Amino acid sequence: MAVISRRNGYLFLLAPRTASTAVGDVMCKQLGGRFIPKRDMLDEHGALIVERKHSTARQLVDAGLLRRRGVDNLFVITAVRNPFDSLVTWWVKKKTSYVPLLADPNSFVHRSKSAVTDIRFVMDHTFDEWVSRNYADATPRSMYAEWLEDADFVMRYERLQDDFEAAMGRVGIDQVPLIPVLNPTEAKDADYRSYYTPHSRRRVARAFAPDLERFGYRF
Predict the structure, then answer these.
(1) Fewer beta carbons under 10 A from the terminal one: N or C of the chain?
(2) Which letter, b or e, does each residue of 85-105 get, where b requires 16 or more Cβ atoms within 10 Å of its Cβ?
(3) What is the pLDDT of residues 94-136, one digit of tens each?
(4) Does residue 3 contact residue 35 with C-beta atoms inside 8 Å?
(5) DSSP 8-class letter at 48
(6) Residue ranges, the chain, pLDDT below 50
(7) Backbone angles phi, psi at 150, to 5 degrees
(8) Structure pTM?
(9) How many H helices and E strands in the chain?
(10) 3-state class of 206 per DSSP?
């Protein structure tokens, strides 16, 4: 899912775990935006083409929802978050919110066998073990590469309201509402650092070195 406002000339790509749902909600209710697509797009076999949430510009173009020229003519906004923090949030969500969804065969978690396997793993393994399972290789990667690909403005989760106001100012919107708190990860400890061992810290630092370097994030 993304938010588009042709009147104001922006496209907001909802990157995972960046409070994007709350930002998108404000855009649609108060800043002339609308969600695209409104629901998951599936092919004739039921396979997911474009998900309702967290779609990228490339996916929207490939699905025919937007033209490439149209994307290029819009001010594209997305957001990032410190990978150390983001991974803890993801693990906690899997452990607390996603595990109960395994009992529902119609839940989004069943779209991917690997996702189901990972959620089952989280049920009885520590954060450190989960990091080792998923990031054992030394291949550097960017957590938000697919959303950053077309971005003209990158907001940071850590200063989201200020960056949101700056982004909206770039498209001529001066009166910017406050971003509400939606979908908080309530079971998560306040300090993400408490989840890490020296071992998992090294793995994540190596895996997401491109993001840490590009955005100046640290442990």
Answers:
(1) C
(2) bbbbbbbbbbbeebeebeeee
(3) 999 888 888 888 887 777 788 899 999 999 999 999 999 999 8
(4) yes
(5) E
(6) none
(7) -115, 5
(8) 0.90
(9) 10, 7
(10) helix
